[in-house]
Specification:
With 253 residues, this protein is an alpha/beta fold. It is built from twelve helices and six strands. Helix 11 links the parallel strand 5 and strand 6. Helix 6 crosses helix 8 and helix 9 packs parallel to helix 11. The longest helix is centred in the middle third of the chain and has 22 residues. It starts with 6 loop residues before the first helix and ends with a helix. The relative contact order is 0.17.
Length: 253
Amino acid sequence: MIRRRPLLELLFPPACASCRTLLDRSDILSGRALCPSCQREWESEKLETCPSCAKPVTACRCITEDMEKCKCEALCKLVYYIHGKREPLQNRLIYSIKQERRRRTVEFLAAELAESARELLSEQGIATQDAVLTYIPRATAARLQYGTDQARELARALSRELSIPMLPLLERRPGMGRPQKHLNSEERLKNAKKTYRVRDFDGCRRKTVLLVDDIVTSGATVAICARLLRRAGASHVFALAVAADELQSERGR
C-alpha cells in the first residue's frame, strides 16, 4: 500500500534507513525507506535460502522445535539477521527501529511483511476477518530508554496494511524477566515463562493470531507466547518477524 507522504518530506527529504543517503523524490513518493543501492542489497538478502526447506527466506515457514511444541504453526520472516554484527544492512534496519522512532522504516518493513502474511493466510485458507494481530511487548526499561516499542509499531502498521485489527493480547509481568540476549536457549524458555501473560482472553478466543516481533533469535519467547495464546483459546498462532537469526534457520524443522 503506497501512502501519500507529508509535504514536509518532499521539501526536506528523509535519509535512507541503512546508509543515511538522502532519498530522492521517487523514493519518497513510493514509500521506500532505502536508497536504490540499499534496496538492491535488501532484495538480495531476501533471496537467501533456508538450509532446512531450501526455499527463499521470504517463503520459508520453518519453526524451531520449541515453537512446534508450543503450537506455533509457522514463522514468516523477510531476512536472516547476522548474529553479533552491526554492519549488515538488515541488522542496521533492526537497530534503527529498536533505537529510534523511524516511522518510514517501520511502514516500509510492515508493507514488506504484509505480503508474506497475505500469502500465509491464503495458504492456510484463513479469512482476514477471522484473524487478529498482536505483538510481543518490549521491556518497560527499554521502551522508556528509546521511546518506542518496535514490535507494537510494526503490528500497528501491519494492521493498516492488512485491515486486520491489532489487539494488545499479551503483557509483561511487572518486575519479572531478564534481557533474553544474555541467556542460553534453556534459560530463555524459563525466563519467557515468568515474563509474559495474556491480558485479553476474549480478544484471541477462536481467532487466528498473527504474533508480531522485530526479530526471532532462539524462538523461545515466540514459543511461550504462542502457548499462552493457544491456552487462552486462539485457534491458530502464526509468528511474523522482520528477521530471524541466521542460526535459527539451522534449528528449523
